[in-house]
């Protein structure tokens, strides 16, 4: 009788463990969404190139900030794809890839959260900078809320990093100090 419940338990555990593969299409969809970002990036780049001789300096800077924003968003998506897949679905065999970035495979869920919030803060800062570049067309109310949202992202990132650091420090064990050899203790007593 006891073997049947154990078999049911093993079958349920195997099904739950296999359910992680349901996430794989999400990461594949995110990889495909990079093409959407690339299309938008190319559109913005062509637009900047077309208006480069007639645009003002601030318009060119705004265009470049839009390109940086899209590049940061693409990088953020790549970080989420690789670290999310490796943390939740399956490890990627990178031994066959000579140009495999060092950070891939080393980002755990905690580091992913911090990198994610860091990227969001950077994207928020770029959006805020874009609004400051066109400050004459932005209302004080809109600018106030953009600053508040940016500060909330920054504070959230700092608090998350601090809570993760505190959590990590409570999980590390402190090794007991090894006693000095008897000859060192005798030498220490002579100098005292």
UniProtKB/TrEMBL annotation:
GO cellular component: plasma membrane
Pfam families reported for this sequence: UPF0114
Highest taxon of the lineage: Bacteria
Annotated protein name in UniProt: UPF0114 protein GIW81_18380
Family to which this protein belongs: Belongs to the UPF0114 family.
Record keywords, A-Z: Cell membrane, Membrane, Transmembrane, Transmembrane helix
Localisation per UniProt entry: Cell membrane
Annotated HAMAP family: UPF0114 (MF_00143)
Disordered: annotated span: 172-192
Residues spanning the membrane: 21-41, 61-82, 103-123, 143-162
Coarse class of the protein's main subcellular location: membrane
Originating organism: Hyphomicrobium album
Membrane topology annotation: Multi-pass membrane protein
């Amino acid at each position: 009788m006891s073997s049947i419940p154990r078999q049911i338990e093993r079958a349920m555990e195997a099904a739950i463990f296999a359910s992680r593969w349901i996430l794989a299409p999400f990461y594949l969809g995110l990889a495909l969404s990079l093409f959407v970002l690339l299309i938008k990036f190319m559109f913005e780049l062509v637009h900047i190139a077309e208006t480069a001789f007639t645009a003002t300096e601030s318009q060119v800077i705004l265009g470049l900030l839009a390109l940086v924003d899209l590049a940061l968003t693409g990088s953020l998506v790549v970080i989420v794809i690789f670290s999310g897949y490796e943390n939740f679905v399956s490890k990627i065999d990178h031994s066959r890839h000579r140009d495999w970035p060092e950070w891939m495979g080393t980002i755990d869920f905690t580091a992913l959260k911090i990198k994610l919030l860091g990227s969001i803060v950077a994207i928020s800062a770029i959006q805020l900078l874009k609004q400051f570049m066109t400050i004459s067309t932005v209302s004080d109310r809109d600018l106030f809320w953009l600053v508040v949202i940016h500060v909330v992202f920054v504070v959230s990132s700092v608090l998350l990093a601090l809570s993760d650091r505190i959590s990590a420090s409570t999980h590390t064990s402190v090794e007991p100090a090894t006693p000095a050899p008897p000859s060192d203790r005798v030498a220490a007593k002579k100098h005292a």
